[in-house]
Every structure is written in C-alpha cells, then in structure tokens.
Amino acid sequence: MSELKRTALRDFHAAHGARLVDFAGWEMPVQYRSILEEHKAVRRAAGLFDVSHMGEVDVRGPEAGRFLNHLVTNDVAKLYPGRVLYSPMCYANGGVVDDLLVYLRAADDYFLCINAGNIDKDLAWIREQAAAFQVTITDRSADYGLLAIQGPRAAEIVQSLTGAKLGLVKYYHFAEATVAGIHCLASRTGYTGEDGFELYHAASESVALAEALLAAGASRGLELAGLGARDGLRLEAGYPLYGHEITADISPLTAGLGWTVKLDKGGDFIGRAALVAERERGAPNKVIFFKTGDRRIVRAETPVLGADGAIVGRVLSGTLSPLLNEAIGSALVTTPSAAGNLSVDLRGTRMALQLTKPPFVELKKTSL
Amino acid sequence: MSNIPAELRYAKSHEWVKTESDGSVTIGITHFAQEALGDITYVQVPKIGAVLKAGETFGVVESVKAASDLYAPVGGTVLAVNAVLATTPETVNRAPYTDGWMLKLKPANAAEIQGLLDAASYAKVAE
Fold this sequence. Notes:
The structure holds two protein chains of two kinds. Chain A is an alpha+beta fold. Chain A has helices spanning 10-15, 35-44, 64-71, 119-130, 154-159, 206-217, 227-237, 272-281, and strands at residues 19-23, 26-31, 46-50, 55-60, 84-90, 96-106, 109-114, 136-139, 144-150, 174-179, 182-187, 196-202, 222-224, 285-291, 303-305, 311-321, 326-334, 342-346, 349-355. Chain A has three domains: 10-54 and 143-236, Probable tRNA modification gtpase trme, domain 1 (Gyrase A, domain 2), CATH 3.30.1360; 55-139, Aminomethyltransferase beta-barrel domains (Alpha-Beta Plaits, 2-Layer Sandwich), CATH 3.30.70.1400; 284-359, Elongation Factor Tu (Ef-tu), domain 3 (Beta Barrel). Chain A contains eight helices and 19 strands. The radius of gyration of chain A is 21 Å and the shape is globular. In chain A, 48% of the residues are buried. Chain B is α+β, with helices and mostly antiparallel strands. Chain B has one domain: CATH 2.40.50.100. In chain B, the strands form two sheets. Chain B has a six-stranded antiparallel beta sheet. A three-stranded antiparallel beta sheet of chain B has the order 4-6-7. In chain B, a hairpin with a 4-residue loop joins β1 (9-10) and β2 (15-19). Chain B is globular, with a radius of gyration of 13 Å. The chains are: A alpha+beta, B alpha+beta. The interface between A and B is medium-sized, with 16 and 13 residues.
C-alpha cells in the first residue's frame, strides 16, 4: 500500500480529534466530532475546512486565455482580473476530465484549482492539449495550502483578521489580502452553498492561518468541519462531485450543468462537437436529484426503479440532510423515466424518490 | 468512565447484553461500534413478539457512512423495542449502553448468555 499524502495541517487535525481517512490518496479529516453536527454548524454559523489536497496550476503566457477557452467548456473570455469562473473540462466525446475553477490574476496569468484525486490525470491532459499553444503550465499543488471558511458568519470572521475590504469582493471574485499577517488569495467561492471564502496561502503558513481563523471564529460559532460534512453540504446545495454526478461517462449536459457549456462562445473547444450533438439529439440519460421523506440513506450505486419496477438507473450520491431530516441524493436515470414515478428498494422496502430541484435547503447570504 | 462496562456480556459482532432482574435481557451496540459507525441515522428493529435465533440478523443500524446488520447475541422472543430510536437514532451515539438500547428479549436458553464474551475478552475484540 502506498503511503498517504499529508497536508501541512495533518497534525493539527489529529490534535483536534479528527478521524483521518484515505481520501483520494490523502490522509484527510472526514470528521472531528460528528458529520451531521459539523454540517449544521456551517449552515448556522461557520465551518473551517482544510482542502489543501486540492491541486493548483499556473497557466501563463501570451496564449493562456485562448488555450483555456479551448480547454474548458465555459467562456474564459468573460474573465477579468479578480474574477473566478467554474467550468467542466471535457474529453472530445463530451465526458468530463474534471471540473475546476479558473482565476484570472492579470493579463496572460491564470490559475486553476482542480480536484485532488485528478491532479496527475489533469496535468497530463492539460499539458498534452497545451502543446500547440504558447503557454507555460506549472503544477503549484505542493506550494499552496487551502482553507475554506464557509457559513453565514464566515466573511465576518475573515474580515476580523484583515484590513482588506472584503465587502468589495463579490461572489465568484477574489482579491489578494493579508489575513492574520499571512498573504492570501481570498476567493469568495466555496462548495457548501453558503457565503464564505477559500483562502489560498503558502503551505508553510497553514497552521498559523488555521489557528488564527479558529481563534477569531470561536466566539462566532465557527467549528472545524471535515470532508464528511463537506460532501453533505455540497449535495444539499446541489453541486456536482467529480466521480459521482460528472464523470468520464457523464457529460455536463447530462449532469444538468448546461449553464457551464458555452457552445457559442466563439471558436472550437474540446468536446464541443459531441456536446452540440448531445444537445440536438437529446441525451439518453439524465442526472436527477431526489428526496425520500425518510431517514434511510439511499446510497450510491443503489439501482433506481421505474414505474413498472424495471431498473432505469442508479444512485450517484446519497446522504441524510440534517436540515430536512430526510434522505437526499442524485441519480442517473434514462431520460424518458426522469419525469417521475421513480423508486428504490432498500432491503425489501420500496421507497419512492421525490424529484427535487436543488438546492434542497434555502441558502443564506450575508451582506458583508 | 468505562467504554466497556464490566457488568455486561458482549458478542464479537459488537452487541452488548444485559441480564435484568426478571430474567429478560436488554440488547444494544457497544461504544466501540457506535464510534466506528459515526453519526447514526436509522435503526431498524424487529416487531414485538418476533422470535430470534442466536446469531440471526435482527435489524440494521445505518450511519452517514455505512449500513450494518445487527445480530441477536442470544435467541429469544422480543418483549420490547426502543421506540425513541425511530425519531432520534443518534441516541445510540450519545448513550449506547443506556438510552440507546435497542430491544429486550425473553431468552430461549439462558445458557447462551454465559457463552458470550465478558468485558475483558470483548476489550481485545474492540482494540
């Protein structure tokens, strides 16, 4: 068995009682005291997540923008310095290599944040596609730590540690900021559906930054939150997770991410022809979201049954929403069956799936 | 505080058994089991009157992470089930040996209880 990789905060997590597990080859905290309690703390006040395992990539050069618009499905040309863009990155057949964030720091100077489990695959893919462009691709994953602070009081907590005017940093924007004396790229993004920041910083400063945020947040309800809570929060918000709602076999259109696929952005991009064809012909399958009205979790890979009891798909993600107090999830089902009358069999009990348009819960926004 | 009370008997499958003064037995899962499962979200228990054999599946405990079968440590007839768990299954996390009990049985064969592990032996299983 290969050794698990560690973030700079591994011992910090252990000292705070984390249960550490193998997550995509990284030794990461799945929970500190309770997945469900940490989840509720994020919706109520704020949670602090170590997501330093995520990958960072610099994309620089005179053709960086043109290259990225060829590489991803969303329109990179819409970016201006300080703006962030979410986008899938597809194969030629429309399947997804990964989903990522694109940051434009200055002209010809972009920065990507990619999924931890896909770093090697993505870098190989990106470098292969970049061969014909004047760009330099640099893996910065080991240099950066990344702390996500999320929840209605997250911005207030970060603001208490910086002179930067965070109110000027709107959703899906970022700014350079010194937080608790540590230089950060403060990105108003996240994976929980709540307001908050993702703070990129030098990995050597991770412990100091985490300690400072935890101290500033203690009186404001901030709690350490693990990847278990993060997964429940993202599903409650209706966000896709690579390997579940989007995969090499599930295109962004099938996944309901049509808003991230700009077929008419001008110029070709990888996967465009396949995605145009999918849009014209209609996809054979569709990702749907459901709740059940029951506490029993409908787990990934559970077969989904149609009106006549035949298998029409499978569950992609499933958990218990601690806010709704019922099971929620996503499933890939045949397009004709997606209109309704779906169910699953849970150890002999037939459970109806109630189609739901996410987010499953009302998401709060702060004014800061 | 002991996480493995000395007065109880244990199954290798992480259920505990308490013999009550009237000869009935109360059954639940151990502190070790609830901790390994994490946040418990659902507990399925049998109906009152059901007859269980030792080693037979009597229900399911589900957590955010996993679903796990529950095994009857001894055989007998179900006298009562813990109704609280239907609405607050997390009681098993909070108080696995007290408020989080799962069912009471009238044992078919009291000798089966003596065949279970004592606290010291279970401590080795739960290491």
